[in-house]
Automatic annotation (TrEMBL):
Pfam families: Glyco_transf_4 (PF13439), Glycos_transf_1 (PF00534). Keywords: Transferase. It comes from the Bacteria. This is Group 1 glycosyl transferase.
C-alpha cells in the first residue's frame, strides 16, 4: 500500500497542526515497515497562505498524488483534494471557523468555515481528535457517524517533569512564581476573562505573575490594552513565539497552568502541562474534560468567582498542588503518539481493504455482464 500525506504544516513556524503531522509521521516510520509513504510539501512559501494554499490543496496535491500513484491520500490539516480520484482520509481538528465565524477575518472564514467542511463529504473516512469534535461534525456538517473514528492526539515525549527546574531566560521578564497560558492570542481562548481573573489574584497575591506565550492571533491588541488599562504590565507578560525547548522550560518552571478556553478541538496545552507535572485549572467546555479528566480543576469559562477561588486554593494549599501534579502526570500517560499512529494505520488499512473489496466486486460484475 502506498500512502500519501500532506506535510505542509511542518514548514515554517509550527502550530498544533504542524506538531501533529510531525509526530504522526515520525511514529509511523517506527511502527510501519510494510507500507510505502510519500510526503507532499509545497516548495513556495506563498503556498502556505491564501490563495496559494487553495491552489496547493486542490490542484498541486491532486496532480502529485496521481503522479505518485498513491493508493490512499491523508489530508491531516486542511481541505481534501477534490480532483484526486483515489481514496482520501481527513483529520478534522475542530469546527472553530464554523462556530466562531464572527471572530475570523472574511477570507479565512470562507476557506476554513465553508470550503473545508464542504470537502469533508468527499472523505472515505474521517479521523476526529475528540468525541466532541466528532459530535460537532455529525450534527453541524452532516457527516455520517459511521464514517468517523476518534483518534486522540498526544504530547511529545520531550514534555516531562524537569530533573532540576531552570528559570526562564531573563529576557522574558519573569521575576516571580508564575502561572502559564499557552496558545494563540485570539477571542476563543477567553483571555480577556483570564486577565480579569488575574487582576483579582494580583491584588491578593502580588508576588505572582501570569505569562502568556503563543502567536498573536486575531484582535490580540485588545488584550494588550486591557493589561495596560488595569495597570498589570509588571504582573502579566506576553512572550513572542518560542522554540519547543523554550516552551517546555516555561512549562516545567511554572507554578500552575490556566486554560479558560471556550472551545477546543482537543486541548493539547493542558496535556503538555500535565505531562510536565504541572497542575491544571481549565474550563469544562467542549473537549477539554476528555483530556484533563479528573486530574485537574474544571470550571465554567465565565465564572470569575470560582476561578479566583481555585487559583487562590492552589497558592495556599501545598498538598493540593502536589496531589494535582501527580494525578495530572498519570492522566497524561493515557495519551501517546504510538497509540495515535497505530490507530491511524488501522484506519489506512481498513480503507484500503474496502477499496480492494469494491474493485474485486466491480470486476466480478463486469465479467458477468460481459
Amino acid at each position: 500500500m502506498k500512502i500519501g500525506i500532506d506535510i505542509q504544516t511542518t514548514l515554517g513556524q509550527k502550530t498544533g497542526f504542524g506538531f501533529y503531522v510531525e509526530n504522526l509521521v515520525a511514529e509511523l516510520k517506527k511502527i510501519d515497515r510494510k507500507n510505502e509513504y510519500v510526503y507532499f510539501a509545497p516548495k513556495k512559501e506563498s503556498d502556505l497562505s491564501m490563495p496559494g494554499r487553495f491552489y496547493w490543496d486542490q490542484f498541486s496535491i491532486s496532480y502529485r498524488a496521481r503522479q505518485a500513484k498513491v493508493d490512499i491520500f491523508h489530508q491531516p490539516s486542511f481541505s481534501l483534494p477534490l480532483l484526486f480520484p483515489g481514496k482520501v482520509i481527513a483529520t478534522v481538528h475542530d469546527l472553530i471557523a464554523v462556530l466562531f465565524a464572527e471572530h475570523i477575518p472574511f477570507f479565512s472564514r470562507q476557506f476554513f468555515g465553508h470550503w473545508m467542511p464542504f470537502t469533508y463529504h468527499k472523505a472515505d473516512h474521517i479521523m476526529c481528535i475528540s468525541e466532541h469534535t466528532k459530535k460537532d461534525l455529525v450534527k453541524i456538517i452532516g457527516v455520517p457517524e459511521e464514517k468517523i473514528s476518534v483518534v486522540y492526539l498526544a504530547a511529545s515525549e520531550d514534555y516531562k517533569p524537569a530533573k532540576s527546574v531552570k528559570m526562564p531566560p531573563a529576557r522574558l521578564g519573569i521575576t516571580q512564581p508564575y502561572f502559564l497560558h499557552v496558545g494563540t492570542l485570539n477571542p476563543r481562548k477567553n483571555l480577556a476573562f483570564l486577565i480579569d481573573v488575574f487582576f483579582a489574584i494580583a491584588r491578593k497575591y502580588p508576588n505572582y505573575q501570569l505569562v502568556f506565550t503563543g502567536k498573536r492571533g486575531w484582535y490580540f491588541e485588545e488584550l494588550f490594552e486591557q493589561v495596560k488599562k488595569l495597570g498589570l504590565q509588571k504582573s502579566i507578560i506576553f512572550t513572542d513565539y518560542l522554540t519547543e525547548a523554550e516552551k517546555i522550560q516555561l512549562y516545567q518552571a511554572s507554578f500552575g497552568f490556566l486554560f479558560p478556553s471556550i472551545y477546543e478541538g482537543f486541548g493539547l496545552p493542558p496535556l503538555e502541562a500535565m505531562k510536565c507535572g504541572i497542575p491544571v485549572i481549565a474550563s469544562n467546555a467542549s473537549s477539554i474534560p476528555e483530556v484533563v479528566g479528573d486530574a485537574g480543576i474544571l470550571l465554567p469559562p465565565d465564572d470569575k468567582i470560582e476561578w479566583v477561588k481555585a487559583i487562590s486554593n492552589l497558592i495556599q494549599r501545598h498538598n493540593l498542588r502536589q496531589t494535582m501534579m501527580i494525578k495530572g502526570f498519570q492522566q497524561a500517560q493515557k495519551f501517546s503518539w504510538r497509540r495515535n499512529a497505530s490507530e491511524t494505520l488501522e484506519i489506512y488499512e481498513k480503507v484500503y481493504r474496502s477499496n480492494n473489496q469494491k474493485n474485486q466486486k466491480d470486476e466480478k460484475t463486469f465479467k458477468i455482464k460481459w
